[in-house]
Amino acid sequence: MGIVVLTGAGISAESGIATFRDANGLWAEHRVEDVATPDGYERNPLLVLDFYNKRRRELKSVKPNPAHLALAKLEQGRDDVLVVTQNVDNLHEQAGTKSLIHMHGELNKIRCTECETVFDCYDDITLASKCEKCGTEGTLRPHIVWFGEMPFMMDEISYALHSCELFISIGTSGNVYPAAGFVQSARSAGAHTVELNLEPSLGASMFKEKVHGKAGEVVPVYVNKILSGELEF
Ligand code: NAD
């Protein structure tokens, strides 16, 4: 894989989706332990379902911004791009990105804890919702990777990181592992590494190149540099 792009909540901020650490928004109203852990779900499934129902509804009105669109353009211009997102929104898909891994799951998917089937889901789920496959009631949960759970498709991601020439990290604070460690894997593969973020992330010193600014402004410029051949890596 030539180029691996890691994206986090910051790339969706200009589309109106609150980041994890924003002072306002849905995350500020709840403790992570309550809405983003298996224990929280066990304690109060209704609260958790409701939290993700609200976030799923939000997707009906948000649109990709110039950063998402630029990454889709990058993929159209080259055949060696993989986008790995920590985001659970669908803005990369809306922008047209096809080579995409949702390592932390998707708001528009649910999973039955009884038969493990994953379904597309665009509406609210409640404790009375039934699994379409096994028919059990109250077993549907968001197909989201919570703290303490294993992210999806780590083998594919690891393979791509160890064979890439360029690693770009966009809009992520570098707090959440394993994503925060991807830069080290890419470096050990000899890749050029760049951080495009509003401010230096926790792991900023690990990157060879850093561009700080809004994703909607800096990502299109960087993508144009790659596509024009100005950037050599
Ligand atoms: P984070 O909130 O920890 O960090 C976001 C980073 O983006 C910060 O460093 C911030 O400075 C930067 N940022 C903010 N606005 C920006 C902008 N306009 N342009 C560029 N950068 C900007 O988010 P994270 O690192 O993705 O990790 C937190 C976890 O929260 C992830 O696991 C993710 O799944 C989850 N999350 C997802 C969404 C989503 O799906 N859109 C939203 C919130 C949280």
Topology readout:
Elements: E1 3-7, H1 10-13, H2 32-35, H3 38-43, H4 45-58, H5 66-77, E2 81-85, H6 91-95, E3 100-102, E4 105-112, E5 118-120, E6 140-144, H7 154-161, E7 166-170, H8 182-188, E8 192-197, E9 209-212, H9 215-228
Parallel strand pairs: 1-2, 1-7, 2-3, 7-8, 8-9
Antiparallel strand pairs: 4-5, 4-6
Helix pairs in contact: 5-9
Residues 8-10, 12-14, 17, 19-21, 86-89, 104, 171-173, 175-176, 197-199, 201, 214-215 line the site of nicotinamide-adenine-dinucleotide.
User: Which strand order spans the largest sheet, edge to edge or round the barrel?
Assistant: 3-2-1-7-8-9
Tally of DSSP helical segments: 9
> What small molecules accompany the polymer chains?
nicotinamide-adenine-dinucleotide
What fraction of the residues are assigned to beta strands by DSSP?
15-25%
| Major sheet description | 6 strands, parallel
Give the proportion of residues in helices: 25-40%
Short account of what is shown:
This protein is α/β, with parallel strands linked by helices and 233 residues long.
What does the model show?
- With 233 residues, the chain is of the alpha/beta class.
- Helices cover 32% and strands 19% of the residues.
- The protein has 9 helices and 9 strands.
- It has helices spanning 10-13, 32-35, 38-43, 45-58, 66-77, 91-95, 154-161, 182-188, 215-228; strands spanning 3-7, 81-85, 100-102, 105-112, 118-120, 140-144, 166-170, 192-197, 209-212.
- The strands form 2 sheets. It has a 6-stranded parallel beta sheet, with helices on both faces. A 3-stranded antiparallel beta sheet has the order 5-4-6.
- Helix 5 (66-77) runs parallel beside helix 9.
- The longest helix has 14 residues, at 45-58.
- The mean pLDDT is 96.
- Nicotinamide-adenine-dinucleotide binds next to helix 1.
- Residues 8-10, 12-14, 17, 19-21, 86-89, 104, 171-173, 175-176, 197-199, 201, 214-215 line the site of nicotinamide-adenine-dinucleotide.
